[in-house]
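hey all, quick one before standup. I had two proteins in the batch that finished overnight and I want to keep them in one place so we stop losing track of which output belongs to which input. First protein below, input sequence then structure tokens straight from the run.
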Amino acid sequence: MLKPIRRDFQVSFTYATLFTHNLFAIENPTLSDVIEGEKKRVLFVVDSEVARHNPHLNAAITRYCNHHHTKMHMASAPIVVPGGEQVKNTETHVDTLRKAVNDYGIDRHAYIVAIGGGAVLDMAGFAAATAHRGIRIIRVPTTVLAQNDAGVGVKNSINAFGKKNFLGTFAPPVAVINDFNFLETLEHRDWMAGVSEAIKVALLKDPAFFDYIHVHAEEIKQREMTPMEWLVYRCAELHTEHIATNGDPFEMGSSRPLDFGHWAAHKMEQLSNYAIRHGEAVAVGLALDVTYSYKLGMLPEADWRKVLLTFQKLGMAIYAEELDMVNEDGQRHVFAGLKEFQEHLGGQLTIMLLEGIGTGVEVHHIDLDVMAESIAMLKEWERTPQRGLPTAGAEKIFAGAPSGD
């Protein structure tokens, strides 16, 4: 009998998350420096909302490529695709990009530059990863959520079968370029929605960062750029650090700490027909799992109150009516999100909860009665908001962060 042939191999991959202003100013070398080689063909994909708020963007891209013609040339006019979750709900736009790859001769040494929110980056990344078995992609996130979370990781996806991110790939980008100027044109909902992902990672990994968000919540709400730039930077740093060092970048196991609060969030998005922004749903999902942690006696009351007060200071909702939607048997639809979350990962159900700000703990069972009580508590809090700081020490500012003054 022939012996099995086994070989171990490792693939090393490095990509940078870069921060800049005015990316397409001709004197800004950030994008051209990322392109390796000379006269590389580049296909630009632009979120329709970004195009609407930046009517001169296409002309700026053209001028930039003409100025840096020794490094790159445009394969075609930028392809504009719908912004928001709708772009992920069918394969239509994936097929559009795959056709463009074929029509314009985009090979594995060419580049796709995707400019937009997290949904557009997800879709474009999926198209790039599945054309020619992988085309180099540069992400240019344009929302807070995309710059600090969705755009900086290694995942790409679209939705299918009524489930979020059912089809997708793990394919790292060549680079992520965060241009803070794009944030200035965001609607207020999109400005705020990405803050929840920063709160998530701060609750799990960095209590001082959480204190920074708590202290500067009003400034962030008022769209002051200095604290928001720091929030984006530190959140992106913590996310990429986790991806690079936790030992499971392609999620082969059942544990996914950075999806804290997401089992309910994904289901609420679907139940709302994606009227709820992802970041808005994550805020509610975090509040729910934090409240559940408190109800179980795991999380001190002062920490629980501090988290909810932070969302309150930011003006972010911690309850959504989708939490109380029921089927014909009176069962909450949102609880189906637990099974879908487990199916997505495989293995045993693994949910992240909180023992303290900065200390997460994984559990493998959820008491639905206690979770229902937690929903009722959030609904009551939303009706009668609390006042006052719950703990001492909230005045601490994260070391190295700008003051925002």
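OK second protein, same deal, sequence then tokens:
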Amino acid sequence: MHHTSASTLNLAHAKPEIRLTAAAWIFMLLCSLLPTILLLEIFHASTDWLLPARLGLLGAALALSLVVKWIRPLRGFFFILIAIMLTELLMNWVSAQPFWVSIFGRPDAPFVQSMFSAQMTRLGVSILMIAAMVALGWTRQRFYLARGDLRAPAEPVAWLGINASEPWTRLGRNLGLAITGGTLLFLFLAGRPSAGVLLQSLAYIPAVLLFATLNAFNEELTYRSSLLGALQPVLGRQSIWIAALFFGIGHFYGVPYGIVGVLMASFLGWLLGKAMVETRGFFWSWFIHFLQDVAIFWFMAAGSITPGG
């Protein structure tokens, strides 16, 4: 009799957790790039209505959380998704204004000018996202905007060869070098730039380092620490996968293109989220991301060079 009661209590406790997890996954997928991809790639339909539809859905979810008790823990998550959409919409509008173009240039300008404009836009989004998280009453530690414990032990992952005793000082360094090396090899095989072009592109290295620094910060802040700050206290390690897939789907139109790009970015997002949660800080996820971005932006700079020009 006592055993049956305990099982019933465990089941009652599990049901809200399962519902919360399912709701978080559903809202993440609906608010990710996935609906846009499906409409464009399969149905070749307009996506103009998606943003107001998403905002309406999230507004309804926030209203629902006022009366439905079990969904209330996701209120911060809904707020963060709204903040991401509205801040990106605002900064995209600002970046199209004449005053912005006169200072930072147009998106179709040469490499340095166009990338500088893009990173300033994303930095604006990051600043607004920090303001949104502060408005929620979160501390910097809640959304991981702290160095964290760089020597924290990593949770073991047998299939990746990560042992229980592995400190993030060693794992972060090794992952950064391995991911960056793999990215360089992929970019070289995909683009086959000549030695002359690669040598010419070395002149862009100071700009590449600046852009990699900014891009890694902006993406980690907007698409990882904000989502983990909202979900990790509610769903635990499940939040790492939700943030990772949101990040990965957003790279469908990146390099590499399509499903391969989504899988690669999602795996990277999982590793970076793992680093952020286990060290309770920003450093290793930013550092690994930064190293990979150095390789990517270097090859983007090389691609902007006209051979013999």
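Flagging for whoever picks this up: Residues 133 and 139 are 8 Å apart (CA to CA). The chain has a mean pLDDT of 91.
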